[in-house]
Amino acid sequence: MPYPTDRKYTKEHEWITADGTIGITDHAQESLGDIVFVELPKAGTEITTGKPFGTVESVKAVSDLFAPVSGTVTTVNEDLATAPEKVNKDAHGAWMVKIKVKDPAELNALLSAADYEKFVSEEAAH
Amino acid sequence: MSVVEATPPVVPKNVRKTALNAVHRQMGAKMVEFNGWDMPVEYPASIGCGIVNEHMAVRTGVGIFDVSHMGDIRLAGREALAAVQHISMNDASRLAIGQAQYSALLYPQGTFVDDVIVHRLGEDEYLLVINAGTREKDFNWVRDNTCQFDCKVEHLSDDFTQIAIQGPKGVDVLQKLTDADLSVVKFYWVTRGTVCGLKNILMGRTGYTAEDGFEIYIPPDEATSARVWHEILAAGKEFGAVPCGLGARNTLRLEGKLPLYGHEISDTINVWEAGLDRFCKMEKPDFIGRAALEKAKAEGVKKTLVGLEMVDRGIARDGYKVLDESGREIGYVTSGSPAPFLKKNIALAYVPPAQAAFGTTVKVEIRGQGVKAKVVPTPFYKRPKKAAKSE
Q1: Top-level CATH class of B21-66+160-185+205-255?
Q2: Where are the domains of chain B?
Q3: What is the ipTM of this complex?
Q4: Model pLDDT for residues B302-333, shown as the tens digit of each residue
Q5: Overall pTM surpassing 0.90 (yes/no)
Q6: Number of Cβ pairs closer than 8 Å across A and B?
Q7: pLDDT at B391
Q8: What is the mean pLDDT of residues B189-195?
């Protein structure tokens, strides 16, 4: 699965675009399996780099979502409340939240698509 | 994401493998450690699997499980029945040759060493099928507590590859591969026959999915195990058979309220609390745990196992707290999950008897929030009864 180059990635398997749209990676959805529940913050919530801001649950497991950068939630993908399986079908399209990024410079510290792909393959080889 | 686990490329040291390990890995299964075993939790979406699909296949068609991590203890000899009676709570004297029963090994306190299926294979021959995580403990317990009987106790856990063929179409799949007439084998009975060219194979109409199906016990070498596994999958193709992992095994057994050792039953939970009264025969001759159970019955239980269904949005998970409506802690969840067939979020939990009535509203604490649930009748799922022949 090629990782889109129009966005940045975290080692916690989230992606974020330059305009602050956040989702989880294809590797994350595949690893979690059937996603059945997504819990997201309300618009207006402040999220902080590296801190949990929501939860994704598969049949088997509960996982925290970590903020790739700090910012304020502007829009929440309400679709996922009733159709969480969309994340399995299209992880790079089924976004979770949009935020107003506090400091765009923070994005520079994140992984490129190529670096993330390398990170995932190295993680698997452990 | 916090929980993103990759299948380890090689099986970690000190983790055991079944003879089908390489097959699971070749099929791309997600492997996890379970009770010291490297086991498939689910097969990849790329071949049409995943916990939900695997679960649904078993409810509506057929699913194939490698359950070779389960253990086996054989008791044989003149006093085998007396030995089995002494160490287990169900009444093994009721078993005809070829019949099996759900039972448990108890500590003197009336709590669980393990739950087991007791098969009567011959006049004086019994096979106990035990859990993976308790193999050594169980074998030592059985051996040490049966020395006074004229009976040989053997640990046969590594002598079989055990494959479960589960679902309403399970019988049709296995029938294609054996000369034995499976239509005459009733639920919780066993037969023997040739399977995939292997002679004298034990086949039990048993399982851990709350569905009809069979468990077969074949030689444990890798080549034979792989051949039979693939032959079963090929025979099941016309019925939509899929390989199933431990993930679906867990959700299937939870829908059917089948206990899991370390969750609903353990060395600190007694038979009455677990609600397994109907498998505990107090009227049979004395057995380990009986005296304590008699006392416990007179005293009454402080906690009891109930089924919960989430009313508000949220999924109860193993270990979460159960609160009463006012927010006071009253118990805990032993197993909780989305139920793929029932399409509800369900759980089993221990609560005081006063809060155990059907319809009682309770809360499950999920990430600091009390989320509403109600006590419901169990099992959550009961398979439809088929006409005559298989029952």
Answers
A1: alpha beta
A2: 21-66+160-185+205-255, 71-155, 302-376
A3: 0.89
A4: 999 999 999 999 999 999 999 999 999 999 99
A5: yes
A6: 76
A7: 40
A8: 98
Which residues in chain A have their CB less than 8 angstroms from residue B9's CB?
A: 124-126
Mean pLDDT computed over B367-372? 96
Q: Are B3 and A126 within 8 A, CB to CB?
A: no
pLDDT in tens, A61-112: 999 999 999 999 999 999 999 999 999 999 999 999 999 999 999 999 999 9
Contacts with A79 (C-beta within 8 Å, 6 or more apart), sequence order: A86, A94
Quick one: B302-376 is in which CATH superfamily? Aminomethyltransferase beta-barrel domains (2.40.30.110)
Q: CA triplet B32, A62, B165: central angle to 5 degrees?
A: 45
Query: Which residue in the set A34, A63, A125 is minimally distant from B1, CB to CB?
Result: A63
Chain A residues with CB-CB distance to B341 below 8 A:
none
At residue B390, the pLDDT reads 45
What mean pLDDT comes out for the span B74-99? 98
A16 contacts chain B (CB < 8 A): no
CA neighbours closer than 13 Å in the CB half-sphere of residue A112: 3
Apex CA B346: angle with CA B47 and CA B352, to 5°?
A: 150
Average pLDDT of B121-140? 97
Q: What is the C-alpha separation between A97 and B179, in angstroms, rounded?
A: 59
pLDDT tens profile B105-115 = 999 999 999 99
pLDDT surpassing 70 at residue B388: no
On whether any CB of chain A is under 8 Å from the CB of B338, the answer is yes
Where exactly are the structural domains of chain A?
9-104
Q: Which of A16, A38, A57, A60 to mutate to test the interface with B (most CBs of B within 10 A)?
A: A60
In terms of Cα–Cα distance, which of A1, A2, A57, A47 is closest to A22? A47
Q: Do B247 and A62 touch (CB under 8 A)?
A: no
> Rg for chain B (alpha carbons), in Å?
21
Residue B366 and residue B323 in contact, taking contact as beta carbons nearer than 8 Å: no
Q: Could you name the CATH architecture of B71-155?
A: 2-Layer Sandwich (3.30)
CATH code, residues A9-104: 2.40.50.100
Give the mutation candidate from A13, A40, A56, A59 for the B interface (greatest B CB count, under 10 A). A59
